[in-house]
């Protein structure tokens, strides 16, 4: 494919196609600088924080070696965190604990950043203004990839420097930094291709995030398999696994890193080839014409919101259902670690102190899934802001539809669908144990435990509604709250964060059933707070200027 692209570039005048790339880079940096700065600094912060906590987890004695061996042998930990290679060194431990997680989040950064600067700008019509000047066809795509690549390299450099500063070998630090820099560069190529396939930025994001999710799920299943299982070999098919498989501090396999370079080159070449063929404003996949007459379900603002979100709902439901079922199948492995007090204590800490390790597992996984589902809820609510930015809301509001009815249709969907999804993942998480042990009561208990976490998801929607209704410039605030909640849920207890930090999330104030007994006041108070914020947001939206 790259040779075809090269021939086409040579015949069409590559320099003219890229003219104005510098202008595009400046435009992207001006618009998205805080997006990149926030992502890079947060992802980098995981690395030195984990390295500094090494001795608090793995002591320099026989007990520490036993804990390291138990962590490496536990399939649930491998599925969540990645492959362990040498947990008796600071570098190897850090790569195991947060390397895979950082690679996954950096991949999301690469996908979203490129789509944000290409397809979203084209969809909103801002690219057309730039193209009215002397700017080449591929300038915006090249600029977006240049910015994404620079941010990714900065992340890798910061990681490498911080690991050298904490005293790890330079070679391992460079391999670790290189892997964590090249992973988002490769997935920036995924975002670039997704931006060419469809005319919708929303659909492009769904495609890109689906690729990241599939790569993560494949990695988790392969890492959880036993060493002699043929499933283990599938991890080479997941680009998210290549940075850990470079084995920083455990052999430093430099030859793995060029795989990420080759993948990035192929994807970027494919993206440029598709952009050269498609029409401006369109995607490679042609949009299908709609029916001549709208169905009855589209006669209301709520019906329109449901129709617009249909693809997202199905994609998120399928992805989270598979993930919950796969993780639930690992709930029967805890008898093997019952004789490791340090590891048992860490699992109980992850599970809000539950004495039964299986219950602790359910509590921990439900916390992670609730954080992910909160992102889904915000994505549904965010359509209000995107519709306003694209001025499509004016079409609806020019009819008899009031502002409150229009906004309430989207917000109601953002509250109801994630709640149903929480119940579904709770059931699927417990289903393998129910089938294995014949205890079907575990299904109802886990569904109830999942639904108890609903107010935390609603609170994210409430914060969005209040910001959207009164101060639209604060649209990043709910994302910061949800992102922080997800980070603490995913790695906070594993890394031994102080309890005051673990308690500083909307999830922490809710009862962690079944580790804790049910308590209705926190659930009702947080739910009521979310409702008040939604109502306040609707009131503000009804009063403020639009656009």
Automatic annotation (TrEMBL):
**Which UniProt keywords are given for this protein, alphabetically ordered?**
Membrane, Transmembrane, Transmembrane helix
Organism superkingdom: Bacteria
According to the record, the segments passing through the membrane are 34-54, 95-118, 139-166, 172-195, 207-227, 254-274, 313-334, 360-381, 411-435, 447-469, 476-498, 518-542
Q: What is this protein called?
A: Exporter of polyketide antibiotics
- Organism of derivation: Nostocoides vanveenii
């Amino acid at each position: 494919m790259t040779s075809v692209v090269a021939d086409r570039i040579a015949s069409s005048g590559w320099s003219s196609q890229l003219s104005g790339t510098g202008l595009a880079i400046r435009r992207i940096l001006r618009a998205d600088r805080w997006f990149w700065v926030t992502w890079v600094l947060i992802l980098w912060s995981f690395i030195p924080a984990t390295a500094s906590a090494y001795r608090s987890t793995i002591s320099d004695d026989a007990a520490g070696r036993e804990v390291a061996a138990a962590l490496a042998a536990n399939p649930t930990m491998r599925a969540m965190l990645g492959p362990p290679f040498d947990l008796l060194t600071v570098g190897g431990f850090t790569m195991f604990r947060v390397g895979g997680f950082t690679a996954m989040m950096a991949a999301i950064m690469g996908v979203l950043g490129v789509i944000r600067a290409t397809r979203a700008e084209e969809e909103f019509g801002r690219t057309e203004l730039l193209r009215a000047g002397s700017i080449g066809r591929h300038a915006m795509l090249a600029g977006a990839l240049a910015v994404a690549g620079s941010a990714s390299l900065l992340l890798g450099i910061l990681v490498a420097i911080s690991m050298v500063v904490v005293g790890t070998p330079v070679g391992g630090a460079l391999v670790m930094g290189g892997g964590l820099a090249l992973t988002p560069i490769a997935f920036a190529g995924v975002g670039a291709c997704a931006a060419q396939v469809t005319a919708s930025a929303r659909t492009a994001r769904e495609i890109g995030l689906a690729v990241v999710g599939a790569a993560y799920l494949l990695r988790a299943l392969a890492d959880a398999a036993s060493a002699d299982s043929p499933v283990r070999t599938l991890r080479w098919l997941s680009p998210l696994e290549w940075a850990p498989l470079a084995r920083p501090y455990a052999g430093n396999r430099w030859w793995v890193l060029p795989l990420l370079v080759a993948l990035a080159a192929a994807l970027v070449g494919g993206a440029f080839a598709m952009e050269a063929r498609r029409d401006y404003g369109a995607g490679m996949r042609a949009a299908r014409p709609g029916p001549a007459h709208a169905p009855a379900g589209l006669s209301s603002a709520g019906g329109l919101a449901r129709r617009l979100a249909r693809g997202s709902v199905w994609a998120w439901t399928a992805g989270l259902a598979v993930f919950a079922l796969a993780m639930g199948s690992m709930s029967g492995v805890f008898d093997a670690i019952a004789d490791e007090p340090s590891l048992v204590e860490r699992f109980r800490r992850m599970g809000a102190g539950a004495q039964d390790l299986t219950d602790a597992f359910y509590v921990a996984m439900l916390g992670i899934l609730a954080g992910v589902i909160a992102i889904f809820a915000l994505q549904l609510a965010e359509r209000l802001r995107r519709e306003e930015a694209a001025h499509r809301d004016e079409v609806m509001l020019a009819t008899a539809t009031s502002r409150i009815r229009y906004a309430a249709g989207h917000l109601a969907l953002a509250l109801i669908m994630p709640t149903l999804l929480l119940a579904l993942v709770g059931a699927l998480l417990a289903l393998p144990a129910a089938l294995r042990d014949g205890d079907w009561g575990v299904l109802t208990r886990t569904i109830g435990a999942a639904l108890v976490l609903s107010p935390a998801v609603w609170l994210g929607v409430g914060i969005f509604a209040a910001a959207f209704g009164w101060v639209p410039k604060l649209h990043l605030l709910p994302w910061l709250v949800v992102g922080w909640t997800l980070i603490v849920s995913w790695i906070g207890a594993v890394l031994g964060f102080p309890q005051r930090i673990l308690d500083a999330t909307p999830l922490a104030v809710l009862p962690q059933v079944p580790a804790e007994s049910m308590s209705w006041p926190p659930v009702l108070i947080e739910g009521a707070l979310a409702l008040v914020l939604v109502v306040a947001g609707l009131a503000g939206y009804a009063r403020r200027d639009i656009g």
